[in-house]
Design brief:
Number of helices: 10
Bound molecules: flavin-adenine dinucleotide
Helix content: 10-25%
Number of domains: 3
Largest sheet: 5 strands, parallel
Mean pLDDT: 97
CATH architecture of the largest domain: 3-Layer(bba) Sandwich
CATH superfamily of the largest domain: FAD/NAD(P)-binding domain
Number of strands: 26
Structural class: alpha/beta
CATH class of the largest domain: Alpha Beta
Strand order of the largest sheet: 3-2-1-7-19
Length: 409
């Protein structure tokens, strides 16, 4: 068997951090290079729109490892440096400081970058985005002096920022182009539920609105000019209109790229020396039986682990049920599955009271589950889905039937 002496990981985010950790946990003793253009140890992003943004948690709370734990891994962190190109012939990665790193295995964990608006005035400093710790620090400062915030995009990030800004006492308007919130991820009933909750918390949620431009006002504020000519005057704008997989490097290296780096479930690419994991992959999901690109904490971690094992030649599998969560106000929303269409849900619990689970069935199998403040239901639903247990709609809805009892089939 070919010996592996050097592994280069590009992208020192959550997935990259898990690759490094797993390589060592699996006993790999060779060189591990972790290349990250951000000036940080690997960290997790979910708190950046929640506790770290509101100041309830410090930046360091998001780090995957504290400094001693990271040092113990004996990984060379190329911090604040960008990998500029990959030469698959010579198996080298060129960094933007001129250094070249040789690899026996390369793992691309380059994540996503934000989709940007291209409108008149969208380059004004008050029009901001949230992806990394630097964005979060800068946004937190701006929120501390702003009074009026417009959030462009009613998806997960936009809604979490809206909830955090309300907590900080700002007036918040959410501007969403579609006719409902989180339309890409959620079924209509859940979109309506979230809109009602945000309105109840004082957010001005506007659906089906287009934006034409941003215009500075004479007193230092900003007009968000809507299609049709109306304007909303605010101090700050946060744009959350989705992300794009960061495939620049992979594409230039001639790997198969199609809405992400195309991989199998465990991150193998068309090149047996190159692997990918996390947000950047468009991978075969062992659970769904089709290709999917996931933008989620759970996938960044678990596909990172799988890709590290695969890179070492360890027989490995990754067939998790896709799982995502969001926290907004006192709501914990969790979802399982990536349905291609939404059926009529079976509701267990009380939507009005804000504690319920919506089950979406395909025949008598669970296709997706969305739970609000019902984490225990999610734990059982995950096992029902993993084991592909047939379910009965009446029993799912019946609060007198313990969900666990359905695990017996
Ligand atoms: C504000 C926010 C809140 C979120 N909340 C949730 C949540 O509640 N629940 C949930 O499930 N998911 C959430 N997510 C999504 C989750 O954080 C991502 O899916 C996860 O971070 C993906 O990890 P990754 O390592 O694949 O990519 P990333 O975290 O994007 O890391 C990739 C890293 O690679 C670096 N990089 C890219 N190209 C290069 C290069 N050429 N050279 C060097 N470095 C490079 C980037 O700078 C970045 O640091 C949230 C994301 C954000 C931004």
């Amino acid at each position: 068997m070919e010996t592996i002496e050097s592994i280069v990981i590009v992208g020192a985010g959550q997935a990259g951090g898990w690759v490094a950790k797993t390589l060592r946990a699996e006993g790999f003793r060779g060189h591990v290079h972790l290349v990250g253009e951000e000036d940080h140890l690997p960290y997790e992003r979910p708190p950046l729109s929640k506790a770290v943004l509101t100041g309830d948690a410090g930046d360091e709370s998001t780090y995957l490892f504290d400094a001693p734990a990271f040092d113990a891994l004996q990984v060379t962190l190329h911090r604040g440096l960008r990998a500029e190109s990959v030469d698959r012939e010579t198996r080298t990665v060129a960094l933007d400081n001129g250094e070249r790193l040789s690899y026996d295995r390369l793992v691309l964990a380059t994540g996503s970058r934000v989709r940007r608006l291209d409108l008149p005035g969208s380059d004004l400093p008050a029009v901001t985005y949230l992806r990394d710790l630097a964005d979060c620090t800068s946004l937190r400062e701006k929120l501390s002096t702003a009074h009026r915030l417009a959030v462009v995009g009613g998806g997960w990030i936009g809604l979490e920022v809206a909830a955090s800004a309300r907590k900080l006492g700002l007036e918040v308007t959410v501007l969403e182009a579609a006719d409902r919130l989180c339309a890409r991820a959620l079924p209509p009933r859940l979109s309506d539920f979230l809109a009602a909750r945000h309105r109840a918390h004082g957010v001005d949620v506007r659906l089906g609105v287009g934006i034409e431009s941003f215009r500075p006002t004479p007193d230092g504020a900003l007009d968000v000019v809507l299609a049709g000519g109306d304007a909303i005057t605010v101090d700050l704008v946060v744009v959350g209109i989705g992300v794009i997989p960061e495939t620049t490097l992979a594409q230039a290296a001639g790997l198969d790229v199609d809405n992400g780096v195309v991989t199998d479930a465990v991150g193998r690419t068309v090149d047996p020396h190159v692997f990918a994991c996390g947000d950047v992959t468009n991978h075969h999901s062992g659970f769904l039986g089709r290709r999917v690109r996931l933008e989620s904490w759970a996938n960044a971690q678990n596909q990172g682990i799988a890709a590290a094992r695969a890179a070492l030649g360890i027989d490995t599998d990754y067939a998790d049920v896709p799982w995502f969560w969001s926290d907004q106000y006192d709501l914990n929303v969790q979802m399982l599955g990536v349905p291609e269409r939404w059926s009529e849900p079976v509701i267990r619990g009380d939507m009005e009271a804000g504690a319920f689970t919506a089950f979406y069935l395909d025949g008598d199998m669970l296709d997706a589950v969305v739970a609000v403040n019902s984490a225990r239901d999610i734990a059982v639903a995950r096992r029902l889905m993993e084991r592909r247990i047939r379910v009965n709609a009446g029993r799912l809805a019946d609060p007198g039937v313990k969900l666990q009892s359905l695990l017996k089939g």
